[in-house]
Fold this sequence. Notes:
It is built from seven helices and two strands; from the N terminus they run E-H-H-H-H-H-H-H-E. The chain is mostly helical. It has a two-stranded antiparallel ribbon with strand order 1-2.
Amino acid sequence: MSQRILIYTRFNRFWHWSQALLVILLGVTGYEIHGTFSLFGFERAVTLHNWLAVAFGVLVAFAIFWHFTTDQWRQYTPTRRHLREMVRFYLGGIFRNEPHPFKKTEISKLNPLQRLTYLGLKLLIFPIQGFTGLVYYYYDDLAARGYLTDGVGMIALIHTAGAFALLAFLIAHMYLTTTGETPTSNLKAMITGWEECHEEDPHPAPPATVDTPGVTSGGP
């Protein structure tokens, strides 16, 4: 038996799709700047890339405010509960049509691996991309003041590596989106916000809490 519940709020969906669009456009313009292909032209690609980066920064600022004022930051708190089950599922169970070991709830929307992945994006990849992008943009001013005397090569390399990491995440994310109960169920949930959740679940979703050694986590 299942019930239809609201998993993703309006801002959840706005944040997700706006972030996805900006990341894709930043990738397209960034790879063009590196000469991978020609679409907008080099100068226009540089201008678009810079403005898209500003838009992404504004979106992140709003998202941080929303996450902390609504306590949604707890969704990214790492947990070890059902972590092994998720690893086994993605390594083999998913190819044998085994049931998903994690069921979403209104207070726990991300499985343990998603929590770790998204936390890494928000605390590592995005900050690195933002910092290296700013350094790259203001390189001439920094060099004139005696900084970065070894050149901009390492900064560009780190920024490009971050771009490849985001591309790998995007490809994996798009594939895993099709692994729900139906190939489109996860996509529909992120568009409408509503998802079918089973009431009886042998592997209930973990609460959004941090696992502390020596302390038993709450929940069934």
